[in-house]
Amino acid sequence: MRNLQARYTRDRLILIVVIAGTILAALPLTLVLGYALVNGFSSLNWDFFTKGPKPPGELGGGMAPAIVGTLIITGVGLLMATPFGIAAGILLAEYPDNKLNPTLRLLSDTLNGMPAILKGLLAYVLVVKVQGSFSGFSGSLAMAFIMIPIIAKTTESVLKLVPWNIREAGLALGLPRWRVILSLVLPAARAGVVTGLLLATARAAGEAAPLIFTAFGNSLLTYNLSQPMDALPLRLYAYAISPYEDWHRQAWAAAVVLLGLVVLTSLLARWVTRGR
Amino acid sequence: MQQAPVQSSIIKQQPSAIYRVLGDRIFLSVVLLLALSIVALTLGLGYYLYLGGSQTINKEGFFGFLTGTTWDPALKLEFGIWPFVLGTLITSLAALVVSVPVALAAAIFTAEYAPRWLAGFINYLVDLMAAVPSVVYGIWGIFVLAPFLREIIYLPAFLWAAENAPGLSPFLGNPAGYGMFTGIVILSSMIIPFTAALSRDAIALVPAAQREGAYALGATRWEVMQTVILPYARGGVFAGAMLALGRALGETMAVAMVIGNGNILPYTLFGPASTMPAVIALEMKEAVEDLHYSAIIGVGFYLFLIAFIVNAAASYLLNKLKVGDQRA
Amino acid sequence: MRKLLIATTALLGLASSGLAQVNLTGAGATFPFPVLSKYFDEYLRVSNNQVRVNYQSIGSGGGQRQFIEQTVHFGVSDNPFNDQQMADIRRNTGSPALNIPFVLGAVVPTYNLPGVTQRLNFNGEVLADIFLGNIKTWNDPAIAALNSGVRLPALPITVVHRSDGSGTTFVWTDFLSKVSPEWAQKVGRGNSVNWIPANKVGGRGNEGVAGVVRNTPGAIGYNEVTYAIQNRIQFGAVQNRAGRFMVAELPAITAAANVVLPGDARVSLTNTQAVDGYPVSSFAYLLVYEQLDKNKAFKSEAEARAFVQLLKWMVTDAQKFNEPLTYARITDAAEARALAMISRITFQGKPIGREIVGR
Predict the structure, then answer these.
(1) Average pLDDT rounded to a whole number, residues B54-70
(2) CA–CA gap between residue C186 and residue C238 (Å, rounded)
(3) How many other CB atoms are there within 10 angstroms of residue A265's CB atom?
(4) DSSP three-state, residue C156
(5) Which of A242, B58, B290, C333 is in the most buried spot, having the most CB atoms within 10 Å?
(6) Which residue in A204, A197, A183, A184 sits closest to A84, CA to CA?
(7) Phi-psi category of A132—alpha, beta or left, where left has phi over 0 and alpha has psi -120 to 50?
(8) B251 by DSSP, 3-state: which?
(9) Looking at the DSSP assignment, which residues form a beta bridge with residue C111?
(10) CA distance A14 to B109
């Protein structure tokens, strides 16, 4: 009997430990979200989204160049990365006997774990030094470098989930393999692929380090990709380490915007896949 | 037997052999070409990093550069990256040690104990953590975490040691708030989701029969964990930890913003330290001397090598695990 | 979807149809960022929105580097290029580099001594000894000798330095190198150096150093004076070569530049000979290629002309914005040198500098 009691007590104890651990795990995010909202919400006014930065010492101003820049740079990066990433995913999922696959998978996972700053370095060498100026485009390239392995990985796992009977049905009807993939498998996995793209975008949009030497930053609004462009993470970093109180508040506001972007994307991804 | 007329109509609609075979070949070539971008990317990265760093690496020697402890861009122009390598290893491993139990606890809770709605919510939160940008953690680190740690832990500990255990002071270091300890705390917070997600998946894959068998034999929940689930999930947890390690090694902005950037060994617990990605992010802008610039890219090259080895090991384990599970 | 695409393209087209706008990019020191920011904001008005300047403060070293890499139209640095660099630039590009002074700044020793409200006095040797780790506590006789009547506590000194490379560090270490042979031999001058003391902390940016100093009793660091004033941090007076203890106020900073300026304005003002000058002052320089066409960043003559107009405006009319922001104006002699250098600027052989400056 006593032995049983001891076991039950141990079970209870472990439950407490596990709950404590879970609370600890959820704590950082809650704190980050909380502080960001508390400190940054007041700075999220209309000016923040529509005006550019003012010289330090003058209150007001906003981050319009950074917001527009993030949208453009990440968007173009996504456009560039999608064909390569999806192709790699298709290769890994649909041609499992291909000799290249183990290497490809290995390199893809490794690239995924590489610090983003290295990819920015590559974009700097390939575009900035050649063109002779910083540009939003080189930032987009760095973004693409980040997104490609993510898209490859998610596309592969999503394609693998498509049941085999769909492929078999297509093949049985005499469709060539490529038609089966393009017209049957991909559409079936559409939701998952889109989710993968969304996740890759959210991840890349938050990176600051690769943009320091590619997009460079711009205090003026520009839509021109061959000019230096601003981006939210860049601006956040610059403002956070600056000595000006007003900029600190705006940095928190930028953090709120970035967090909002992340939450929105993840909710969108969940919604897209729930419908299937 | 109505086969013949049906068959002929199907044959008429059959795509031509060229459409099929050539189409397949072209498609495969296109897909292959595009997918090769990943290989090109990795090779290109390694090549350009080596190229950029070669000036200093050749000067100091491959191992000389790695193990040198002097980083002097001003006077002697001598560069050794061992402080940064050590900083990276210490912060990453320490963060791993701190975060794995926490992540495992969360995974266990959501997989075994929590009601489904709660489990879903917690999983969502944990997954969200992985998507939070590094700079956001960084700004939180600068304005919230560092002052908090300084007031609550560093200063009291430092003052206590100064009174009661002065021998401990050099080990504790300067309690300014930006240093090794803060870096470890923030890094642990950031890598929790990776271990948690993989552990969760691994736990979910444990065969129901095993679980039910243990329960049938009268085991408590914890005992089922101990004897059935954790042994089965061990591989997944380990793979998750390796993945988390890989990410921790490369984490740049958040760490750079709180780690205090001290380049000199020995490191102290609270005092400033530095990591490889942090030194690249911070010094690259300021490197004027060609040798200094090349040294920083050299750090990038060694980071590439280390990240490659760790991530390769992690993904190898992951794949081995997945394959095993699919068969089961 | 298609309508969206058309609308976007039209918008992009409109936006980049430019209206003959000139976009200039500059990079460099963080110290003059507030005043540069004000300049370029004002210049938008002055030029009727035609000349848009994007300046990113990535640090003096960064400014020099990107100038050499020709990814920017101009750089900004707390320290001018040295002889070797000038020769290298001339050899590699065919064009000499111009270091055009446009603002004066100073670096002050900031400290945190609870209970001490007076402004402390320092001199070069003492500062060097502190930052070398030779002087370890605040009540050291060397410090007390300069501060009679001040009760210095027995706190250990924590040296705070810039952990990122910085022009501020260059100016500070330049001064220390001049006043202390031991410093010159063991550490030297640079945007980032190998700091010796055992009890030291690195802070990132002016803010980082100030933050650490503010929170660490017994800490001493170095900051740009503008920043120290705006953030109300205690800073000390430094003895200049003439023996006077100078506080880094605007007149003293401007006075430091009252020395004979070389033709190319490349001068180190630290430990200045000027009797009224603050000894840790320095110009901030605009780094410009003399032959603008040799700079890959310049794509047209219109760009070059607009740029030279901007330069002229910065060293003349714009100077009125300096002092309200607690930066010192450049002296008349420096302005003359600056204009002389600007008039040397050419583009594809055309003497646009001379045309615009009017000499």
Answers:
(1) 85
(2) 22
(3) 21
(4) strand
(5) A242
(6) A197
(7) left
(8) coil
(9) C220
(10) 10
Which of A76, A125, A219 to mutate to test binding with chain C, by most C CBs within 10 Å of its CB? A219
Helices and strands, counts by H and E, chain A:
14, 0
CB A35 within 8 A of CB A254: no
pLDDT at B9: 54
**What are the two backbone dihedrals, phi and then psi, of residue C267, each rounded to the nearest 5 degrees?**
-145, 150
Greatest CA separation for chain B: 101
Give bridge partners of residue C57 from the DSSP assignment.
C28
- How many CA atoms lie less than 13 Å away from A258 in the CB half-sphere? 37
Which contacts of B318-321 are long-range, i.e. CB under 8 A and separated by 24 or more positions?
A: B318/A109, B318/B198, B318/B239, B318/B242, B318/B243, B319/A102, B319/A105, B320/B235, B321/B202, B321/B235, B321/B236, B321/B239
Chain A from 100 to 159: CB within 8 A of any B CB? 100, 102-119, 121-122, 125-126, 145, 148-149, 152
- Which residues have a Cβ under 8 Å from the Cβ of A126 and sit 6 or more positions away? A138, A141, B44, B48
**pLDDT > 90? residue A112:** no
- Neighbouring CB atoms inside 10 A of B234's CB total 12
Please report where in the chains the tokens 């101009």 appear, as a residue: C74
What distance lies between CA A24 and its chain's CA centroid? 25
Q: Give the three-class secondary structure for C300.
A: coil
Strands (E), B106-202: none
Contacts B24 to A, Cβ<8 Å = 176-178
Both ends of chain A: CA-CA distance in Å? Answer: 51
Q: What is the pLDDT of residue C6?
A: 55
pLDDT band at B8 (very low <50, low <70, confident <90, very high): low
Q: Is the pTM of this model over 0.90?
A: no
